[in-house]
Each structure stands twice: as structure tokens, then as C-alpha cells.
Design a protein that fits this description.
There is one protein chain. The chain is about 25% helix and about 20% strand. The chain is of the alpha+beta class. Helix 9 crosses helix 10. It is globular. The structure holds zinc ion (2 copies). One zinc ion binds next to strand 6.
């Protein structure tokens, strides 16, 4: 039986930072896990090499043909008509049911309902309804949705900020855990809430964010977000405001901790290379591309239930802090090795 070490380290922030640096992802890991990185050709713009298609994609051919998904490009004719070229570039694949659909700029051309399973297939059946794999979906939504990035190379991507190098402040560069909630818009998965937590569990930043594009689906089952969060809420931020706020205390050397943090950094549109990813620190025993969920890590390592109803970004960020404190306690205080 694994003895549970304490979750407080008694370390000052500078020492904590130093110890956490041994878990940082390498540039190669960042790239291969699909983290946004700065384009070597287009300064300030992002490249994402997305290795995790939820479904077999029909868009492989398109990617290899153009060498890019060109989300920054505009291939529609001025009069809005479909040409062979823009048919290709406006074809999306639904992240829920895998059907193809078309979005032209901010307008859905395909308006059929999305019938899907919200659970994952596991041992031949879906976790949501236990129906056999391949069977018709158990829930439906008004429209299909897409993630905003496609399988393979996505570049150059606009609207990103790159964290800047800064002279080390006396108290260190800082360590924070980040978790975001996203909803589906015409532009893909977009940020609608961001939570930043310090290593002592204190919430540093927790804001709702209004997506730039039209919201198609609040993704409430997973995000916990509904239209009420944006209605008559004067504290809702824009992504630009979030960038300004976060860049005040996050520099290039600040350690950001998260679970599969590439998804959060994509939604935040932040290019940052100093990352601890708990899905890598606590790997799946089959190795990549398999990754343990945050919920299952918390259950098996800390014997705690999280995400019992829907996701709470503060709770998830705190969970990442606790997992890393546990890891430090094990690795630096000679507790028994963690088996996950
Ligand atoms: Zn189902
Ligand atoms: Zn769909």
C-alpha cells in the first residue's frame, strides 16, 4: 500500500521552481504533443502540429496537398461563392460525430443536427449509454462542431501572443497551474473561462471570456458554461484583455502546470515553452498517444473524486498543483515510487 506523502513541501517558491524544472517538457515534446509554438517563418504567429485526431480524418489529403490548413488565409471568392479551392478549405469534420460539414467565414452552410455519443468508446461500447461501438448517437445538438485545428500542420495561426523573457524577479519567475473551459464557436473551440492558481492553491485569476466568434454550442456538459454566464455580466473579458492581464505576471520562464495543457494554450492563444504537463509526468502505462484523464489520476493517486458533475476550471487547476506536489514529495523525499 502506497503511503500518502504530505502535499505541502515547506519549500520557498525559488526552490520549488528549481525542483519543478526537472519535469519541464522539451521543445520536441511540446511540438509532438501539439503545443502551439512560434512559426519559424512567420514571427509572432503559431504552428500547431496536431497529432490527436478524434476520428480518422478525411482531411489528410487536403493537408498534404496544401502543406497547411491555412486558417489565417482567406480562400473564398469576394462574392462568397464556393470554388473548388474554398470547398476544400471550408470543409470541417465534426469533433463529436465525425460527419463533414461546411462553415464559410462565420456562417454555417451545413445546418443538420449533430447526433453523437458524449462518452468515449471503451471495450466495444460507449461510456455514455453502453450502446455498442458504431451505433447511432444517444444525444443530439443543433449543429456540428469542430475544434479549430485539424490533423497535421496548422500554420500560420493568427492572434497568438508569445510570452516574453524577463529579468528574474527576486521572488523567482513564478509557478502557476492553469485550466480553461472552452465552448464551440464558428471558429472552433474557443476560450470562455480561464483559471490560474498558485502553488499554495490560491486563485490568482478566474475570469469568463467572451469568444471572438459566434457561439454555436456552449459545450455545457463539459464546460459548465451557459449563456447566463455572459448575460448582463460586466466582468466578462475579451481574449485581448486576458492576454494583457496574464502577460503582467507570466514571462517566458514562468512555469505553467496543466493537464494536457496544449488544449488550454491553444484556447488562450499563448505560445509558451516552460510547461509541466501532468499527463506526461504521470504517463499512461501504454505510453503515448494514450493519456490518463485528470479525473482518473486524482482518483488513483490521491483517492479523490473530481469532475463529478461538470468540469470546474479552478478545481482542475488545483488538482494539477496537488499532483505535482505529490510528485515532488515522492521524488525528493524518497517515498515509494508512484504506480499509475
Ligand atoms: Zn451514448
Ligand atoms: Zn456532429
Amino acid at each position: 500500500m502506497l503511503e500518502k506523502p504530505p502535499l505541502t513541501t515547506g519549500l520557498n517558491v525559488a526552490e520549488l521552481e528549481k525542483r519543478l524544472r526537472r519535469y519541464l517538457l522539451t521543445p520536441k515534446q511540446l511540438e509532438s504533443l501539439g503545443y502551439p509554438t512560434e512559426s519559424p517563418l512567420h514571427r509572432g504567429k503559431a504552428v500547431i502540429c496536431n497529432p490527436f485526431p478524434p476520428y480518422e480524418s478525411v482531411r489528410d489529403a487536403r493537408c498534404s496537398e496544401s502543406g497547411s490548413n491555412g486558417s489565417g488565409s482567406d480562400e473564398m471568392e469576394d462574392d462568397g461563392t464556393l470554388t473548388d479551392r474554398n470547398v476544400q478549405s471550408n470543409l470541417r469534420r465534426c469533433a463529436r460525430c465525425s460527419r463533414g460539414f461546411f462553415v464559410l467565414r462565420d456562417k454555417y452552410l451545413t445546418t443538420e443536427r449533430c447526433v453523437y455519443h458524449y462518452g468515449k468508446p471503451f471495450r466495444g461500447s460507449y461510456s455514455c449509454c453502453q450502446a455498442p461501438e458504431g451505433s447511432a448517437g444517444c444525444v443530439s445538438a443543433k449543429l456540428h462542431v469542430w475544434t479549430g485545428v485539424e490533423l497535421g500542420v496548422n500554420s500560420p495561426l493568427n492572434g497568438y501572443v508569445v510570452t516574453k523573457p524577463r529579468k528574474m524577479p527576486p521572488e523567482g519567475y513564478g509557478v502557476y497551474a492553469i485550466d480553461c473551459e472552452m465552448c464551440y464557436t464558428t471558429g472552433g473551440l474557443e476560450l470562455c473561462k480561464v483559471s490560474v492558481v498558485a502553488m499554495n492553491g490560491v486563485v490568482i485569476y478566474d475570469k469568463y471570456v467572451k469568444p471572438d466568434n459566434t457561439i454555436v454550442d456552449y459545450n455545457t456538459r463539459f464546460s459548465g458554461i451557459t449563456h447566463k454566464h455572459f448575460h448582463n455580466n460586466s466582468s466578462v473579458k475579451s481574449l485581448k484583455e486576458v492576454h494583457e492581464d496574464l502577460m503582467e505576471f507570466i514571462s517566458a520562464d514562468t512555469i505553467l502546470i496543466g493537464h494536457a495543457l496544449e488544449n488550454d494554450l491553444k484556447a488562450l492563444k499563448i505560445i509558451h515553452g516552460t510547461v509541466v504537463d501532468t499527463s506526461v509526468t504521470f504517463p499512461h502505462h501504454f505510453g503515448l498517444p494514450y493519456r490518463r484523464s485528470l479525473r482518473s489520476l486524482m482518483k488513483s493517486i490521491l483517492q479523490r473524486d473530481i469532475q463529478t458533475s461538470c468540469h470546474d476550471s479552478v478545481q482542475d487547476a488545483v488538482a494539477c498543483v496537488e499532483l505535482m506536489l505529490f510528485r515532488l514529495a515522492c521524488d525528493f523525499h524518497h517515498f515509494p515510487k508512484i504506480t499509475v
